[in-house]
Amino acid sequence: MEVHLGFMKKLFTLTLKVGTYFFCLAASLFLAYALKYAFSIPVCVQEIMWQQIGILVPIKLLLLITLGEFKGIFAYFRLPDLVKIVSVFSVFAFALLLLRFTEYQTVIPTREVILSDLLFSILFILFFRTSLRIINGRLD
């Protein structure tokens, strides 16, 4: 019974971490679009934006999972963790910028949105991870 509860606790914690990251990354892309369109996103763009959130955010999450971002204790956020996050998001943004020059450019966000999303993604995840560290009192 204890093994089952331990597994359920780990699963719940992982789900909470991934869910929070998903929310942060979706909010980042949404805010990037909102800024591009002065907080009045045209209806025709909204559909594309929601599709991109549904595709690009899970890809970012898979990249982070692949690099082990969700292993370990979240309250221990250090410089190597930040470097990993910035690297993943930067490489992903660069890949999207390269895709802007292909035939798929209509389904890829604009340069402004890609770069804004990069900055907001880093800031939101940094804020989340730093907040957890402060809440847990681990500032050493």
The total beta strand count reads 0
Derived from helix and strand composition plus strand pairing, the structural class reads: mainly alpha
Shape, principal axes of CA atoms: elongated
Radius of gyration: 17 Å
Beta percentage is under 5%
* Number of helical regions: 4
Distance between termini? 36 Å
User: What's the rounded overall pLDDT mean?
Assistant: 89
Q: Approximately how much helix is present in the residues?
A: over 70%
Please give the largest β-sheet. none
Question: Please, could you describe this protein's structure?
Answer:
- It is a single chain.
- This protein is an all-alpha fold and 140 residues long.
- It is 75% helix and 0% strand.
Q: How do the strands and helices of this protein lay out in sequence?
A:
Blueprint: H1 2-36, H2 43-66, H3 79-99, H4 111-135
Brief overview:
By secondary structure, this protein is an all-alpha fold.
Keywords, separated by commas or semicolons:
mainly alpha, single chain, 4 helices, 140 residues
